[in-house]
Amino acid sequence: MNAAEITLAPTMDGPATADIVPAASLLIGTGRTRRFVGREHGAGISYFFVDNDPGQGPGLHWHPYTETWVVLEGTAEITMGDRRLVAQADDTATVPAGVWHRFENIGEGRLRMLCIHASDVIIQTWADED
């Protein structure tokens, strides 16, 4: 066995029922984007499920942990530091901790993307904060 491996024995002693988090309970304001904060649900990660129209996207910001994007539908222009990348449906990109980043829907249709935060809480520092 490799020293980095962890071995666990499976168990059937889990909860009798799984908790389902209804999508509607995660909606942010009146938009279609949802925010899942892992700590509130016993999960070790958090995420945004983005559903943006053309031209929409968050402003420049950074996190003290990595963020991984999975593009489900549409086209996103992703800015990471001084790099600009174009990601399409089925593409995945990861931004390192502490790097300024943003994305924008540059397609003609909706952008649907899962933004996975490697943290059980969401910590964001915005560039336009005073």
TrEMBL record:
Coiled coil: none annotated. Residues 50-116 form the Cupin type-2 domain. Keywords: Metal-binding. The keyword Acetylation does not apply. The keyword Metal-binding applies. One of its GO terms (molecular function) is metal ion binding. This is Cupin domain-containing protein.
